Every structure is written in C-alpha cells, then in structure tokens.
Amino acid sequence: MFTYDDVKAMTKPIEFAKQFKKMMHWRKAKGIVILADYKMGTKKMTIAIPYKKSNDAKKEFKRTIKGDNFPGLPPKRKIFVGQMKIEKQADGTEKVIVKQIEGGASMELINEKAGGLFEKIKVGFQVHDPNAPQTTEAPETTTEAPTAPTSQPTDSTENTTVDIRALAQAAKTAMQLIKNELVPAFRAGTITATNTPQLNDSKTKLVDFKTAYDGATANVKAQLERLYQPLERMLVALDKMLEQANNSSSTTENATPTETSSVSSTDLANMIRNIKTAMQEVKATAVANLRAQNATEDDLKMVAAVIAQINEFNTKYAQAADAVQQQLARHKEKIQTMLTQLQSVETKIKDALQTTTETSSNTAKIQQTQERVEQIRNRIQEIREALAA
Description:
64% helix; alpha+beta
C-alpha cells in the first residue's frame, strides 16, 4: 500500500493515479484517509490513501497529518478519516462504503470529491449516513400515530415502519445509481435501450417509496424528509432518460444491417471519457511543465499517446451509424478542438526540447573552448618560466 509520505513525495498527478488505480490496495484496506483539494504541483485534486486497519488511519491523522505544515495539505474541514469496506452490488459492480471517525470534512463534500475519484476506476463510493433509515433496526416508539400518543405500537404499525424503511433504503440506492451512473450517461447522450430495465427498476423503487411516504405518519415523514426532497426531480429525470432510451430503441430497429454492426454509442462514450481524463493529465503535467520551461521527453510521449487515442476515436466514429454520429456530434467537435490543442502543445514541447538540446550543445562547446584557452595560458606560462631560467 502507498502511504501519506509517498503522496507527499509525488510531484505529478499521474504518479498518484498509477498507485490509486491498483485495486489490490483497496481490497486489503479497512481504513481510509481522504484529502479533498490537496495541491500537487499546480493542480488541486482529491487524494485517497488506504490503510490495513481503520485505527492505522486514525493514528496517521492524529500523529502526522493533523499537525503537518506541508504546503499541499488542505485544511481540516477538507480531511476525512474513516473505516471502509468494499461491497458487491446487485449489478455486479463494486462500491466503497466509508464511515467517518475523524476529520472535519462533510459527508456531501466527500461524496462528491471521492465519488468522482473512485468513478475513474469504475468503483462506486458512498459515505455512510448515520441519519439514514436502517432496515435492520427496530422501529422506535416515536413512529406511533399522533392521534394515539399514549398507545403501544401494534404489530401492524411496526410492520409498516419497517416496510417504509426498507423502501427508503431501496430508493436511496436507486438515487445513488441515478446520480453516479445514469445522469452522466444521459448528459453524454449514451442512454440506450439496454438501460431500460435499469431505468424502470429505479423508477419503481422511487414511486414505491413516494407512495409509502405520502401515507406515513408525521414522525416518519420528519425522519425521511431529507431523502424525499429530491424525489420529484429524479422522477422527472428518469422520464427523460426513458424517452432517450426509447428513441435509441427506435433508431436501432430502423437501422440497416450495416448500421447494426457498427460501433455502439456506449463504446464511443467510453472513449470520450478516457480522452477527457487523459487530457486533464496532460494539462496538469505536460502543459504545466511546458509553462515552467521544464518539458521532458515523457511529456512529449504523454501528448502523443492522447493524440493516438483521439485518432482511434475518429476512426471508430467514422464507422458508427449516422444516428450515433448525430447523437455524439457535439462531443466530436470538442474532441477535435482538443486534438488541435494537443498538436500545438506537441509542437511547442518539440521546440522546447530542441532549444534545450541546442543550448546544451552550445554550452558544451563554450566549456571546451574555455578549457582549451586555459591550456594555452598554462603553456605560455611554462614557456615564460623556462625562458626566465
């Protein structure tokens, strides 16, 4: 596993990315430290560090991180220390679940920052909400109907409370899926007919919870109000996604045999995401080094690799069906803009490396000349001394 000291020694985001993406670190971890807006070089980024035990993470925070004056370290309100585990989801994916034990970072901040970080390695992320309804807990007496405050809860009341808690938990899971996977896909225009079962299942869970909530007691509503608030907005979003999925289905049905065998929009969307991620790394490293006049051959190779990715995307895009091309036309334009920028950066790095090579060559020649002049001076001095004798 990599450590906090290892992170401090890193100067480029790509160094952290290489360590972070190794799932073997996270499968062994029971503790985690998350640093939101950590500054590495010129870039602010989210850092997550695994620990074999949650107590190790807690000790690291108290003994080292808390009092460290390292310039890249964010303030305490952006630091999270917690327990962690990896859970297998029903769709076969994995999700990191964390529970806070130290640090001042809010649940919302860490869900956003760390969620985006783990999304890059196709792993879900969620901070355990201590206020969320738990399906394993027995209902409290505060869930009694207001009209009978002194009565004991009946079996029916208890069962109803447990039911709504179970529905709330299912709705919460659906909301996470909508936010982390379906909404980004919808914005990228990659929702297809294959997503329809997932969309319908999510909608059913939200509707079931809404129905139960509307008929619940005031006390239960008060407990679940926070979860209920975004419900209507998410239902509207799901309807739009289903419409996109249906349109995709119609396009597929009307496609010619050639079109059906073409590259899918999902394949292209994955390539677009990879290109955007690579472009961010180029800006954070190669472009930053170029501006600092420290460009290297590694920076040139990085830029060339992204250009190759874009060329591959262009080839696949040309093979896609017309409907898919229209769907991703806006993204294609942005990719072409990136290509132009990268080609410009590539040229500038080559010029900078050439200048550095020429400067080094001139410096070497000057040094050789100076050494030759010194040799001549010494020889003249020897001759003078010989004549004087």
